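Changelog note: in this version the structure field was regenerated for every chain. One regenerated record is shown below for reference.
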Amino acid sequence: MRFTFVSDPPAGNDDPLDAYSRAVMFVADRLSPSVANLRLSRRGRGGRAYDSGGSGVVITADGFTLTAAHVVASTNGHGRASFADGRELEFELIGADPLSDLAVVRVAGEVPPAELGDAERLRVGQLVVAIGNPHGFAGSVTAGVVSALGRALPTRAGAASRVIENVIQTDAALNPGNSGGALADARGRVVGINTAVAGVGLGLAVPINGATRQIIGALMTEGHFRRAYVGCALGTRPLPPRLARELGRAGCVEIVEVVEDAPADRAGLTAGDLIVALATTPVEDVPALQRLLDADLIGRPLPVTIARAGRLLELTLVPDELDS
């Protein structure tokens, strides 16, 4: 009888699973100290009580912590953050933006901050690691890949609705308590904030990119993020063929409904109008129009080019500030 002995692989020829494991462990070691379980304060008959809300990730040395807006929606503005080293620190809510599902709280203590990355550099198939602190289970780590990019996630705050663009889809397992936790690349940089479980093996994260960095900065400094408001329901649709040839593009934004006495109504816009440009910038879909409606446009008269009954018209629109 002959026996074959399997020796360890030669140095430099690592098993791919070993390399994968090392990458995940590196991210876990780097990020876990920065991730907290957020317990939300509420008044009860016996005094103040704390309910588990979700997770958060510290992003500055002075305690600013990023989480999901829906995680802190029911807080009275205060709570406790539990970390992997066993510490419990008080936090206060600084600001929340339900329309991006991002919020910032500030932890009262010194915690090593995580590094923010750039979701625009992600590629489908790239390794990502989700780290949360659900229900007090310190540093829960799952790993997977980016399974899709450019997803859209509808959000609502009161009567206002909006679509979060470029949402990251991952197959890294997410549980409800992981909401607000970090989605990181292989270098341990936070590229997303976990926001939703959309199905078995399907998690979604709000990306960290130029647009969301602006929101985060505004929440840290002002406690809210300002948006312009025009007051109409919108939908993306193709341009009629003649107008598409004339304008050299295929899409536009249709006004489905106009809110009475809102800026769109006061500008003379009506249901069925097709918006093709705002402030001379071409508009081909609803996300493109959303990107234009930032704080700089509030209260400013803007030219809006529409197609109505096959003709191009230019009206003047003065956006209000969105009250979310």
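Spot check on this record: The chain has five helices and 21 strands. The radius of gyration is 24 Å.
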